[in-house]
């Protein structure tokens, strides 16, 4: 409940609660003390009253008996009972007198005040009890005076004065006193409560004011903090204060400043490439969209240059991704410098961006004519023609540049990007390291695709595709146990074409079985050669994409090729990607079963994205698992990936399945894999993919090293591929 | 009148002086009566003159009115301190009319030659008597049993509680002995007596055993407001006197006969006159007046005869 109240209310409540508690305690103490004091006073006054009343009664009684004793001398002497009766009755009628007796010297009753002297001759105490049985003798004060004649005692007058009436009077006074005191106490209590209430209300007001004063800067700071969340960036209020609130304000200010900086950073990252610090694709689109709009308004031409580096793949493959990144950084730097020089010289505002990979763009505004764009393109090509150093290696690569103009070729962002891309391809086709203006002839949606398909068909027919082999080693020892065949297409115009790209193309164009058959034919032939070279136990793996096809011809082809080359099926490993196997589980089970009959081992490739696959392993004749390279990459950086890698390994081992880790590039990765008992490893750390001839010599060196007791884990070729 | 002289000589010197003074007064009155004989004087013995004058005044006023036709111009009340004074004044003709007890009336008749006028009813009774009583557990059963014991009279002026019982005991020639207080005891063989002072004391003394017996009038004996029933319940009556008139009006012997007859008539018819009621009530709570009965006269005569012996026994 309290936590839901504002700070002001809580301050006020706490202050008032404290005040209330103090008032209640003091008030209670005061009232208790007051009551005890009044009680004491009452007791003392009652005692004093009692004592005084007793004394008074004694005096009163004594005065009565003294007079009576005088008046009764003669009657008693003469035994004038009537006179005694009259005196006694008069006496008994007196206020406060409970009884009156005349007694003789033996304290026996002479007259008791009754007309027939009921208790005549009896002892006084007996007579009193007899006549006044209902009297509370405790409340009676007895007084007596002797009756004497000429010094001789005749008897005595003995009376009882009731304390009750006197006491009743005393009690009445006492009660009056008590009533008065109680009423005074009540008045005082009421007054105290009244003052307390007034003080409490004043306190509440005061506390509210104080609490509000306390809370106001905090509230302002809270508002400020909320506004900072919504983009406010000025200095906070109350930061000049020297107290804790000032400290809070300063901290908030610092936080806001940090937020401002990191927000800028985030925006920067969102629109810039982290590697080269150049504007990224998103920024390009923004710039381009804005520029198109501006150029429309200004009725100016705008140019988009699409730059694609030639043969950048070679750098990556040869020196690894780090070198590739370094290379790209240098390229970006050169392009930036080039643009800067150009802009200065031409008073232009051309901007550079990196689309991704080895693709860059330049947006030129206020373009006068096409020639101007070609001048810049030529300048760029010149800049990039200089060899670039990365990891101690110098690479001379060129670039192909596609140029498109707006509004000449279109005024839509995506159209311009596509046009530039096509023009770039045309430049590549023209022999690289050149530029090309877009023209309408390129404006066919599938132009490039069609030509690539045709090209793929050609290479398959002409067996122009090449296989390269990457060794798979025992993780613990580095011993080569198998190789994986990787298909390479070197396009005469486009250069190196990514396997993913042409495999996808083959699948789309119905050539995938053809491609698979080519791979198997080539692989078995190469395996034969390896066998002949003495590596009779080396296994070779190939990735087959058509295994899940209905009635796949590839299985028959495999059987036929193995038979043709007189190779046992166990020399062959077929890798099937986890994704395709799971999508067509029944067919895959059928096909893998047939392969297993041939003695061919089935390995699951890129494993790890679908853990659920494991439960189907029973229905598939699986020989092993290849962990997805993402997990291997992540070993050195991500804790989760490490855990996943270990979990996969443990699970596979529980199923008696060996595990291969691919993409191993660094020693720590290997060490971790060794630590988790990963069986095999594959990657640049051991060897790059290499042609058959290179493989044979590599294997021979390995064998020799092994024979010499050396374990060769790494092999740097340092080869520069033109 | 040797008896009167004897009585006078016996007076103490103080009384003699007072008597001389009174005599001088009477002589003065007689001289004035000679010139203004038309006044009737009521005498009353009292030690409380204002109360007694107040009791007699209405009667005096009534009689004055009733006697207006006879030449009586005024009826006056004269207070005298004692019976001897009364006797003297009666004899001197200074007092004409006195209301007396039976014994008082006889005494005045004997000593002052007064005449008995009419019987007076008091408290509704024409006559009363003396009651001798003792505790029920007392061995006293008759007067003679009081030998060696003590009897309580009331006081010397009481007819029923002294004169009457004392005259009875006197006529029996018993050896009486006067005692000062009940605490005293009589000599052997004598009959002790004390004065209690009032009826209440008499009854209480007997009841509480302070004396052996008491005597009261029958009216007091029956008056429960005076003597509590609890006391009466414990007592027994062992002797009674004859009845005697409650009270008697007397006039001096030489008062005009016609006036006497007229006065008697007025008094004896008063109870029939509603206008006389207040005067009667004030006059000692008188009920009516009537003629003395024959028994009354006999009783009074016997008292008269015993008077000399009585006077000797109770000086």
3D structure, described in words:
The complex is a heterodimer of chains A (722) and B (315). By secondary structure, chain A is of the alpha/beta class. Chain A contains 21 helices and 20 strands. In chain A, strands 12-13-15-16-17-18-19-20 form an 8-stranded mixed barrel, surrounded by 4 helices. In chain A, strands 6-7-5-10-11 form a 5-stranded mixed β-sheet, sandwiched between helices. In chain A, strands 2-1-4-3 form a 4-stranded antiparallel β-sheet. In chain A, helix 15 links the parallel strand 15 and strand 16 (572-577). In chain A, helix 13 packs across helix 14 and helix 14 packs parallel to helix 15 (553-564). Mean pLDDT of chain A is 82; it is low at 709-722. Chain B is 44% helix and 22% strand. Chain B has helices at 2-9, 13-35, 49-66, 83-91, 102-112, 159-171, 199-208, 218-222, 229-233, 257-268, 277-282, 294-313, and strands at 39-45, 74-80, 97-100, 115-122, 127-128, 130-135, 150-153, 176-178, 191-195, 213-217, 235-240, 244-245, 247-251, 286-290. In chain B, helix 6 crosses helix 12. At the A-B interface, helix 3 of A face helix 7 of B.
What's the gist of this structure?
Chain A is of the alpha/beta class and 722 residues long. Chain A contains 21 helices and 20 strands.
What's the Cα radius of gyration of chain B?
21 Å
| DSSP helical segment count of chain B | 12
* Molecular shape of chain B: elongated
Query: Which residue ranges of chain B are poorly predicted, with pLDDT under 50 across at least 5 consecutive positions?
Result: 1-11, 28-37
Q: What share of the residues of chain A does DSSP label as strand, in percent? A: 15-25%
User: Count of DSSP E strands of chain A?
Assistant: 20
Helix content of chain B: 40-55%
Numbering strands along the chain, what is their spatial order in the largest sheet of chain A? 12-13-15-16-17-18-19-20
Which outline of chain A best applies? elongated
Average pLDDT reading of chain A: 82
What percentage of amino acids of chain B are in beta strands?
15-25%
Give a short account of the largest sheet of chain A. Answer: 8 strands, mixed, barrel
- In terms of quaternary structure, what is this? heterodimer
